[in-house]
Design a protein that fits this description.
The chain is of the alpha/beta class. Helix content is 42%, strand content 14%. The strands form 4 sheets. The chain has a 5-stranded parallel sheet with strand order 7-6-8-10-9, sandwiched between helices. It has a 4-stranded parallel sheet with strand order 3-2-4-5, with helices on one face. The structure holds iron/sulfur cluster.
């Protein structure tokens, strides 16, 4: 296959577009790409003839293109993708499991990652170097990953290392971060974690050092620290926009965990009030939320856990049970559809999908598939060798811990 070179693009901070897809009805049915673009979003430009294609034609052409490519490629679909995209996924999963599927399948020419940029980077790191990883819309970033820019993190790392001197600081990054951040962790005796293994990874880190720098999600970091009994006043938040992250020397010297000031724009929409409202309307409801939610929401919920744990818990629950879920709406709607014997609803009454996951409109999937059939690889995500090598070290440490 021929590879088309693209200029590197900056994946922008995306929260400004968040409201473009927050709707008060429960319908998230895809429209033509041209109609969705009318919301004023800045998505990747693709050939004009694709923009006005109606859904039925898109679906038929995706099916045809996919069949022609057979087992030369694999289509991966993150749980937060729209139904119109997920129906074409060979595997569904969270970011880490999807990358693992891709890495374990040999003989592929390309992996089409229907997810966001950092996920495609991770897949590129974990797959053999001759596999092209494709992100259908290059503007599908992640607002949380965007909040930890490598230059800011390097500055923070240098300052903290100088303050802590001989006491070892272990960097941990959540999977939802750029390859550059994973690489910094790999290079500095650090590690990657997911929302499923964050507790084990924290324990691993504290066996090797006295303190942890946790990137980029302050909520997952705080929730994990609290679970391990670390008091709130021994966890500080580091803001990249303030001198010393907004902390005094005394606060930093007392801190066991330094939390990067990042968050998920989807999971921070959930509130204690929503939990109370769900309980008022459904007295026997079970409230389950993702650990990217703020700490007070976790405290008000009955349980919390990763996307995979939420899916498993609801799938295995008894018929007739009621579930209020604090995670991304496309997944919650799908769970409700797949389990009609249970009541499953989103804690947030406003229908608001992850605006960056939503950028993988089915028409983009069609475009990259048809290009592959024409012998052209578009939107390839390539991590440079040095970054790849160090990021892989951090990912492999996590695998060993798990
Ligand atoms: S749900 Fe949150 S963390 Fe996940 S891709 Fe969207 S913004 Fe990023």
């Amino acid at each position: 296959m021929t590879s088309i070179k693209h200029k590197p693009r900056t994946i922008p901070i995306t929260e400004i577009e968040q409201s473009a897809f927050c709707r008060s009805t429960s319908s998230l049915k895809s429209k033509t790409l041209a109609e969705e673009l009318k919301a004023g979003v800045r998505w990747q430009t693709i050939p004009a003839e694709y923009r006005t294609l109606e859904s039925e034609e898109v679906v038929d052409r995706i099916r045809e293109s996919r069949e022609k490519l057979a087992d030369r490629i694999m289509v991966l679909g993150h749980h937060y993708q729209r139904d119109e995209v997920i129906q074409f996924a060979d595997f569904r999963g969270d970011s880490y499991n999807l990358s693992k599927y891709a890495a374990e399948t040999k003989g592929l020419e390309a992996v089409i990652f229907c997810g966001v940029h950092f996920m495609a980077e991770t897949a590129d790191i974990l797959t053999d170097s001759d596999v092209s990883v494709i992100l259908p819309n290059l503007m599908a970033g992640c607002s949380m990953a965007d909040m930890a820019k490598i230059d800011d993190v390097e500055e923070c790392w240098d300052e903290l290392s100088a303050i802590y001197g001989s006491e070892k600081l272990i960097p941990i990054t959540y999977m939802n971060s750029t390859a550059a951040i994973k690489s910094l962790c790999g290079e500095n005796e650090g590690i990657v974690c997911t929302s499923s293994n964050a507790t084990k990874v924290f324990e691993w880190a504290f066996q090797r050092g006295q303190r942890v720098l946790f990137l980029p999600d302050q909520h997952l970091g705080r929730n994990t620290g609290l679970r391990l009994g670390i008091p709130s006043d021994e966890m500080v938040v580091w803001s990249p926009f303030k001198a010393s992250g907004g902390n005094s020397l005394e606060q930093l010297e007392k801190a066991k965990v330094v939390l990067w000031e990042g968050h998920c724009s989807v999971h921070t929409r959930f509130t204690v009030e929503q939990v109370q409202n769900a309980r008022a309307k459904h007295p026997s409801v079970n409230v389950i939320v993702h650990p990217e939610c703020p700490q007070d929401v976790l405290a008000a919920a009955d349980m919390n856990g990763s996307t995979e744990l939420i899916i498993k818990t609801i799938s295995e629950a008894k018929p007739g049970t009621e579930w209020a879920v604090g995670t991304e709406i496309s997944l919650v709607n799908r769970l409700a559809k797949e389990h009609p014997d249970k009541t499953v609803f989103c804690l947030d009454p406003v229908v608001c999908p992850c605006s960056t996951m939503y950028r993988i409109h089915p028409t983009y999937l069609l475009w990259v598939l048809e290009a592959l059939n024409d012998g052209v690889t578009v939107n390839q995500i390539s991590v440079d060798q040095k970054t790849r090598k160090n990021a892989l070290v951090a990912l492999e440490r996590m695998l060993n811990v798990s």
